[in-house]
Structures are given as C-alpha cells and as structure tokens.
Specification:
Layout: H1 2-13, E1 31-32, E2 38-39, E3 49-53, H2 59-75, E4 80-83, H3 94-103, E5 110-114, H4 117-124, H5 132-137, H6 146-150, E6 153-154, E7 157-158, E8 161-167, E9 170-173, H7 175-180, H8 192-204, E10 208-211, H9 215-237, H10 248-261, H11 273-281, E11 285-290, H12 294-300, E12 310-313, E13 320-328, H13 337-348, H14 350-360, E14 363-364, H15 371-374, H16 379-390, E15 392-395, H17 405-419, H18 425-435
Helix pairs in contact: 2-13, 2-14, 9-10, 9-17, 10-18, 17-18
Bound molecules: beta-D-glucopyranose.
Beta-D-glucopyranose is lined by residues 55, 61, 89-91, 166, 291, 293, 324, 326, 399.
Length: 441
Amino acid sequence: MRRMVALAGVAALSLTLAACGGGDSGGGEPADTGEGTTTEKPWEGDASQVSVTTWWEAGSEKLGLEALVEVFNEQNPDTEFINAALAGGGGSQAKQKLAADLAANNPPDTFQAHAGAELTDYIDAAQITDIAGLYDELKLRDAFPASLIDRLTVDGAIYSIPSNVHRANVVWANPTVLEEAGIDPAAVPADMDAWLADMEKIKAAGKTPLTLGMAWTQSQLLETVLIADLGADGYNGLFDGSTAWDSDGVKKALGHFEKLLTFTDPSLYSEDWEPAMQLVVDGKAAYNVMGDWAIASFDSQNKVAGQDYIYFPVPGTDGIFDFLADSFTLPVGAPHPGGTKAWLQTVSSKEGQIAFNKVKGSIPARSDLTDAEKGEFSDYQQNAMESFGSDTIVSSIAHGAALPVKMSNAINDAVAKFVEGGSSLDEFQQELVKATDGIGK
Ligand code: BGC
C-alpha cells in the first residue's frame, strides 16, 4: 500500500508534451567583456583561486555544493575554492549583496544566476561576459537541451553554464497525516477545489494543512496556483501581455490563494523553506509546496519516498513542468578568470553534474547522460528527467526564469503584504498589475 503511494506520486508526475532535444544555439563571436574591450578568451588568467557566490549555504543545499566542490578539488588541485555562499533560500539575501558588489565593481569570480529573465538583468547591465567561446572550447554546445541554451543566450552570446534544472510545482505531503484525516494518500486531488476540500478534513483532524514560509516561498505558491487556474498558455501569457494581470482568471487564482492561506500557520511566515518543510517531515503538517530541492532535505534525513513522504504536481498543474535552472557566470572584471574557467569546467562536466545533482535533488542540465548514468539517480529524479523531456515547460516567477528581478521583487512585496493582511484581494491584484507594469508594452 505504502509502496503504491510512492508510485502514485511518480505516475502523477510523469506527463505529456513538447520534447527538449539536444541542440545548438549562440554565436561564435569573440567575447565582449562589457567594458568596450573585446578579448578572445576572457576566461584565461589567474587560476590560483575561485570565489563562488551561491545561496547554497545551509542544510541539503550545502551538501549539494560540497559534493560539487569535491569534484572540483579533484579536477583542479591547484585552484583554491573560496566559498562565498550567503544564507537565504531562493537567493533572498545573496541577490541583494551581489547586486551591491557588482554595482561597486567588486564581483566574485563567479556567481549563481537563474537561467531566463534574471540572467538578462545582468546582461543588460553589462555585468557578465559572453562565454560562447568557452562552450566551443569545452565542447558544450550539444551537451545541453536547446531550450535551456536559449534561456542563457542573448543575440547569439551565451552568458552562463547551467548546473541543474529544478521543478517548482511539487506538493510534498506526509501520508500518515493524510490517512489520519481520512484521506487516501494515493488519490491525488484533481484541482485546487478538490485540494482545498482535503485541507478542510486535515484542519478538522487537528493538524496544519499547509505550511508556508517567507515571502519568496509565498510567491512560489502563488505562481503554482496561477499555473493551475490559468493553464500553461494562460500563465505564459502573463509574461508577454496576452494574459492581463487584472483579468478574471488571475482574480480566480488569487481567490484560491487567499483560501489556501486560511489553512496555513502565520507563525511560519518569517521562516525559510527548510523549517517550513520540516513540519511535514515531522508529521505535524500535511502539505508544503516547494521546488524539488526539497527531496534532498527528505533524503538527508533518511526519509523514504512513499512511506515517510509522497509528492505530486500541485493540483491542476499535471503535465506542466514549472521550470528553473541554476547557472554560473563569468562576471566582468572577475579577479581570477582562470579560476572561473576551472569552476565552469567542473560545473559543466558530467562528473560534476552527476555528483552535484544526485545530492541536490535536481536533474542534470546536461541531456547526454547514458541510461546507466541516469540509473544512478533516485526514482523521483529519473521521473523528473522524463517529465522535463515531455511536459509543457513554463518558467518560474519566484526563481528568476520568467521575469526580471525588479518585477519579481515587486511581486514578492505585494504577495507578502497580502499574506500579512495588509491589502484586500482587489488591492493585491492592483499591486500585481503595478508590479508587472511594462509587460507587453
Ligand atoms: C535555486 C535552488 C535552491 C532554491 C532554494 C532556488 O532559487 O535555484 O538551487 O535550492 O532556490 O534556496
């Protein structure tokens, strides 16, 4: 029975749609350093060390980084790894510090950046360097799916090397809590209303139905509700102006979001994702919506899928992969560009990607793993690999894929204000309209 629960979760995550084949894009132009000078290979130079800014600073994310650093040290014994990780899930603090350092011309040797719109912020500010030539040197053009390279490319230049792909629209649940409330853990709710009905039962049984942490986790929950209620096309339309933020569809989603909040515990609203998830791990709460880095947290506590926890797509988002990817850059003016090259080489290597992603819970960004190599990953991850190749891919707002940082920060502020009771539903919607002003214009 318990095994079937795990399988129900796995089956629910494997869906249908557009394939992401291996591919090639970007130009082979000489790299532009962004400072008006053009050098052939800006990644050549001092390789004595590499300072790496990430937000993989605690818990299971730190373990993932450590696994990558182990490979790095083996591959680059002469380059010292300097850990410049900053606390705060989702980059909630790292991105601010990074922006200040970049503005002050004090860049690290490399930093974690999300593929997609967030990367465009750094490109537009001429803060990161075109490394298309490094793709050629390291023979990477066919290593990653074309759909991913596209999100790293502007005008033929490629600006970062992806380390991993995560899925954001996953519900993590405690099956014992569900059973105690009379809910069959194998019966995945079909949509938001069905899920809310289950939450009523959990509340009646005396447990917290849904845990929710700080602002970025709130935005992440909201984006999954938007996907559920608008569908993939309607959700994508939010980023090109074809779906209006003041539409009835968005209003419906905000209504569901408001209802979901009634099942959460406000004392967790200042917590990062891991403490909020821990209540699900410990059987004190039923559900948490989080990206699939969460599986690493369950794994690192020796929890067994199907027995101690289950997972399924956020109700109403079946067949949709809410995508985000981490990648690493060569900042303009990096003090140790040779060190950066060494880091990028490890990040892009099969060995680095396999070691890192196995621990991190993500799937390798490389699409050229053999079946045997794929077999080294957990059931969840193998399933996510399949889904990434077949589901409809949409971009995460909370994790930089869909919107520039300024807009996602403004959305975070509006969401946090609403969650804390500082605005009505109508005011909230108007603030989202304001936060996204400029889209489609
Ligand atoms: C990153 C993930 C990380 C998560 C939680 C996301 O923005 O892409 O790598 O695990 O935040 O910190």
